């Protein structure tokens, strides 16, 4: 073999060539594996929190859409959901109405979703 070709080889061709030392890939894989697992665990936890928020929003919207009301809701307006004695629901523009049990204050959004605004 010519000297030029030997220089291009990734390994030594004689016994006096430097030894080939393989890197410790097990340590790298264990470190990166645990970091990757943490990343995906956090991503799944975030997705679960988003799922629970969407689920509770869907339940709220179901309550409001099944409630009785005699007006056309306007986007951006605040309304109040009350529970009647017969376990039916009433959506009202009246705040702090003592005739019924208060449930939640909601706002009608442009995408026809009712958003909880009780804590604001």
Written description of the protein model:
The chain is α+β, with helices and mostly antiparallel strands and 120 residues long. 40% of the residues lie in helices and 18% in strands. It has helices at 3-8, 25-66; strands at residues 78-83, 89-92, 101-108, 114-116. A four-stranded antiparallel β-sheet has the order 2-1-3-4, covered by helices on one side.
Give a brief description.
This protein has 120 residues and is of the alpha+beta class.
**Would you identify the regions where 5 or more consecutive residues have pLDDT less than 50?**
none
By secondary-structure content and strand pairing, the structural class works out as: alpha+beta
- Choose one word for the global shape: rod-shaped
Whole-number tally of structural domains? 1
End-to-end Cα distance, whole Å, is: 81 Å
How many helices does DSSP assign? 2
Which percent range fits the helix content?
40-55%
User: Got a strand count?
Assistant: 4
Q: Within the largest sheet, what's the order of strands?
A: 2-1-3-4
Along the chain, the helix and strand elements come as HHEEEE
**Share of β-strand residues:** 15-25%
Radius of gyration: 33 Å
Largest sheet: 4 strands, antiparallel
């Amino acid at each position: 073999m010519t000297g030029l070709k030997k220089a291009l080889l990734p390994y030594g061709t004689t016994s006096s060539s430097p030894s080939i030392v393989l890197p410790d890939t097990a340590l790298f894989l264990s470190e990166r594996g645990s970091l990757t697992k943490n990343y995906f665990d956090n991503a799944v936890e975030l997705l679960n929190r988003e799922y629970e928020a969407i689920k509770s929003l869907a339940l709220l919207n179901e309550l409001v859409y099944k409630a009785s009301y005699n007006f056309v809701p306007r986007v951006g307006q605040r309304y109040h959901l009350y529970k009647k004695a017969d376990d039916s629901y009433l959506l009202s523009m009246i705040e702090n109405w003592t005739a019924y049990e208060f449930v939640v204050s909601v706002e009608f959004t442009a995408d026809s979703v009712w958003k909880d605004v009780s804590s604001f």
